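Database export, one record per block. Field names are fixed; values are copied verbatim from the stored entry.
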Amino acid sequence: MITFVNMNILFSIILQVALGAITQHPNLSAGSLCGYHPQDTVYTAAPAGYKPFYISLTARHGSRYLSHGDSVTFRVADTLAMLAGKGMLAADGLALMEDIQMLRAIHQGNYGALTELGAQEHHEICARMYRHYPEVFSNKSREEVVACSTPTMRVQKSMKAFTDELSGRAPGIEISKSVLGWEDYPVNRGLTGNYLDREARERAKAEEKNFTEAVSALRRGYGLETFAGRVFADPQTISSSRLKYIARACFKCLKTGCLTTPASMPAMDKYFTAGELYYLWLSGSMSWARYLNYPGYMDPFTRERGGGMIAQLIEDTDEALSPGSRTAATLRFSHDNYLMPLMAAVPFEGTVLDCPDTEIPEIFQDYNYIYPACNVQMIFYHRRCSKRILVKFLLNEKETLIHGLSPVSGCYYDWDRVKDFWKKRFDL
């Protein structure tokens, strides 16, 4: 049981992480919908003599419009219009209503589709990959690239944006593209992992109650009072349940501005304080805990879904690295609820949690991992007259270490050791 004093200490820690970041960059509160923020950095030099020769990429589709199922969220515009008709909205409330109406109009006819920004994100990721590793795509003995996607149209268009960029920069490369249907399992295991059985799903659902309780505990001391005072002419006439509904729905609608043209869209802090954004952000970020290495959740998601993707990665990579292979890169395009289990299956630092539920936001924030176009890259290196293959991992284009496995040098790992580590971890 967490005492009041301990909660205050915990809040002060979290304020330095999540609330501090959201205060400085309010759009991060959109979490998994905050738009791709590149992690283009200066990379660590490889050990002497080692050169890159093969790349494996697994990426989420780029920024998208809300799905058809989320279209009901925009009904909050009708609620606000009804309140406006009764004279119950303040000036900011009327402005909020107009912003939600504008965002709904943008979505009409576009639900679930890739935005222009989403395509641009993949063009730019490819451009940076080519800039950092041009030798991978200029090797005359390796001029083939294999690309595949799930059947969802926004994923297919993300693949097209990436491969179009690559074709323009490396015209000598031959790119084969395929769309793997949901029914093509196990062919599409590298995109979606293993399917979960009913028992695993039920166990995950039961464990999720713990995280719901943790969100409630973390929200103590935070509320929506400032938002209510700005939006409503007389906040006292608005029930607590209606206030929460309007705030949460408007928060989700405002997120969509991060996925289209964020510079011209209303920012996340236009109507909410940083503390209110933190309050609203918490439940979305905590929901990703189900995909992490956490007691009770590792088996149903990390082990089955992520482990299945790892198994396919090993198989595809060994084939690409075999003598006579002409593959320069393998490109996979999928969805967030498959990328997060893969990140946890690797496992990257920050995805292994050993703490009370209420301390998760101190360690893991979704806006650092699982936003549109998020990606895992494996860059493979070899050296002349040596059979040893080295690999480094990029998480959203940033060099990242594997939890529980030591690199050979810097961020460079022995590929055989990585495989052995994974095979032992997932009984492959």
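Remark 1: The mean pLDDT is 91.
Remark 2: The longest helix spans residues 298-321.
End of record.
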